[in-house]
Amino acid sequence: MALKALALNCTLKADIHEESSTDAMIAVLAKAFNQHDVRMSETVRVAALDIKAGVTSDEGDGDAWPALREKILAHDILIFGGPIWMGQISSTAKRVLERMDAFLSETDDKGRMPSYGKIAVAAIVGNEDGAHFSSAQLFQALNDIGWTIPAVAACYWVGEAMGSVDFKYLDRTPDMVTKTANMVAANAAHLAGLLQSSPYPG
Question: Could you give the number of structural domains in the chain?
Answer without folding.
Answer: 1
